[in-house]
Fold this sequence. Notes:
Largest sheet: 2 strands, parallel
Helix content: 40-55%
Strand order of the largest sheet: 1-2
Order of helices and strands: HEHEHHH
Number of strands: 2
Structural class: mainly alpha
Mean pLDDT: 89
Strand content: 5-15%
Radius of gyration: 15 Å
Amino acid sequence: DHGVAPDVLLGTLFRIAGADGVIYVNAGGRFTTWTVAQCQAINERLRAPMGAIRPALPVPGGGVDAERVPYWIEQYGADTMFLIGASLLRQPDVEAATRRVVEALREVGS
């Protein structure tokens, strides 16, 4: 509604400005700002060739549940940096929950 598509703003303009990683509100989190398709479009622009400008990491956040990381890896790829906070802190054993997330990433990467 503001005149710049999210994928252009976050996926192209932020890269041109020098961002190494771009945090955006993830679909399906506690905010319902964008759809999975819109988030995937941001990710595609962040990774797409752009002359001498290097790719940037997609960093979805805002309600990324640690238990759903395998799903999000399938949607976005293992070369995504996930902001996972509250869902890990709610776990009785934060270290074990963190290990499960790391293992999910390793399984996709192999």
